[in-house]
Each structure stands twice: as C-alpha cells, then as structure tokens.
User: Fold this.
Amino acid sequence: MPPDVVASGFGTSSSDALLARAEFDRLSERGRRFLGAPVAIMGGAMSWVSERTLVAAISNAGGFGVLAGGSMGPDALADEIAGTQALTDRPFGVNLITMHPLLLDLIAVCQQAGVGHIVLAGGVPSGAGVRAVKEGSRLVCFASALVLAQRMVRLGADALVIEGSEAGGHIGPVSLAVLAQEILPHVTEVPVFVAGGIGRGEAILAFLEMGAAGAQLGTRFAAARESIAHPRFKQAFIRARARDALPSVQLDPRFPVIPVRGLVNAGTQAFLQHQAAAMAHVDAGELTREQAQLSIEHFWAGRLRRAVIDGDVEHGSVMAGQSVGMVTAEQPIAEIIAELVGQACGALAARHDPAAGRHSSARH
Ligand SMILES: Cc1cc2nc3c(=O)[nH]c(=O)nc-3n(C[C@H](O)[C@H](O)[C@H](O)COP(=O)(O)O)c2cc1C
Assistant:
C-alpha cells in the first residue's frame, strides 16, 4: 500500500487512525479484491483526459485508473496501453464503447496486452462482445436503472458502475442518491461501484455502508497535476461551482439531445441557438427532420478535445460533474486519493471520538 495513502492525517491518535483505516478497508474489501488495488476508487475514463499519465498516476497512488479507449483504433489503443504499462506495474482498466465498429479488435488488443478489466460503456453490449471480454478479462458494465443492472448481470457483467445524473459527461436522468437506493440492496451478485457527484471521502463511506463495493470519480481527477488537460481547462474546474455544471438543454422534443453535463459557456448558448435555427429551417421546409437532427448531433463533434487539449473553454465542451465545486486546486493524484481516504477514515474515527472528526473535516 502506498505510504501516502496509509499516512493520510485523521487528526486523531494513531491507533484510532489505524482502526478507522482497517474498517474502511473492510468495507471496501470486495471492491479492492475485484480491482486488485489497495483503494477501491476508480478513476472513471474521460475522453482526452484519461490517457497514460493520468491512468498510471491513479493506479500508482493506490486507486484504479481506466484508460479512455473509446475513440481509438486498435494501433493507437495498443500504444496507449503499452505506454501506461511502462508507467505503472499496477492494474488498470480500459474503457471501450459498445457501438465501436472495431470493438472485437479493440478487446483483442486489450487481452493481448494482459489488461485484466474492460469497461464497456454506451449501452447493453452484444453477446459477442461479452464473450470476447470474458475470454481473458473481467467485464465491467454501466447501469442506470435496476432492470438494466439485473440484465447486465444476467449477460455476464463481473461488476457494475451505477452512474447518477450528477456526473460529468453523458448522463442518465436519475441521481446517484436514488440509483444507490434502487440498485444496491437488490444487486448483490457482483460488486457495484457508485459514480456521479462524489467529491469527498465521507460520501464514499456512506455508499460503502449502503453496500457499494467502491466508487468511481472523474471530475475530481480531471484537474489533477498529472492531468494533461490544458491549464485553462483546469482553471475552469477550479473556479466553477456545482451549479455551473448543467446538463445540455433540448429545445424541442422532435429533436432529441443526449444529455451531457458540463460547464455552461458560450458553446452551450450557441447550442441553443443552433437548435432553434435548425428547427426554423425544418419549419420553413429548408431542411428535412433527419438533416436537422444530424446537424444538432454534430454540433459538439470535436469540442471536448477543443476544451481539454486546446484550452478553448468558451466554445469547447467542458464536461464536468456537480462535484466540480469541490475541485479547489490543481492537486497531485496521490494527494487527492489520500484526502478522500482520510475524510472517510476521519468520519469513521469520529464515531468513537467526535472531536477528532470535527478536527479532520476542518482540515479540508
Ligand atoms: C471530462 C469528462 C469526460 C468523460 N468522458 C467519458 C468517456 O469518454 N467515457 C465514459 O464512460 N465516461 C466518461 N466520463 C464519465 C466518467 O468516467 C465518470 O463516470 C464520471 O466523471 C463520474 O462522475 P463525476 O464526474 O461526478 O466524478 C467523463 C467525465 C468527464 C468529467
């Protein structure tokens, strides 16, 4: 276990701290065993952000990094996995998208490289996809409702991530506060990791006590020191409050918009105008419905890269979860993980010594 994780301060006596840590480890044991990591905290895959440096940093700090492989071809993915393996000898996962035309090739690349965990995002995976993953890796699926969670387990998922609408990026309609109550008591066959809006260790502790195996965070890691995101992207995270991270708005039910949570900026305003213009063109008979729908869907193409890599946080897509309000500095990954573990352990220690808990929460 990395010393920075063990030595996170609790503001209490060292024996209390060790007991609290042992209790935290016990609560998260199923998740730690599944991930093969000392801390059951996954760094959720974030396109353009979750590349080798960040993923390796998360795994090296005791968590479990996940590469965002969704938009890569097989050669690029093989290179990214090899690059990550050069930076860490700890386990990490790869996130792939179910509808990728080369999904089976990408799965084969992961397995040739010995990747132990594959996360399939973007809907219910095909039987062929599930079988391919399970030939050599463990399969992690997303579920945004109880029926979906049960279906994923029947399909062969070895673990689930339940992601609430508080999360950054593409979201479902239901908050983690509700999903956790709906799913955790009823899905016990596989470890379930919770995601969405988590910014502090006390929240992780609460979900572990409800039966979660661990947590997945994205937003808190995106602005970390090791993140390759542009300094302006990180500054936007540091400045933003929870209320600035809003889902994309759909103007007309005829033209569905996939909800994506991100920081409101000139781009989100332009998106509204773009939808209004597309609708006006359809009403005037200048565009077919299909053409208008396509132009709405294409609006955000390339804009996440524009924000993350080019630093255009005004017109790019600054995907962020509501936990962005808890991003207050560009911290090293090991410090973030130690802080999360310290907060959870501080809350546990406070049950025996309330003064210690007050001291611990005042620190962060
Ligand atoms: C900038 C950004 C990009 C993301 N990209 C992806 C992605 O490509 N694939 C995916 O499955 N999830 C993606 N996510 C979701 C994260 O993996 C994670 O589940 C989510 O961030 C957790 O909620 P939180 O942001 O409140 O911590 C993204 C999130 C952010 C903030």
Q: What stands out?
A: Residues 241-319 form one domain. The radius of gyration is 21 Å. The CA atoms of residues 201 and 340 lie 4 Å apart.
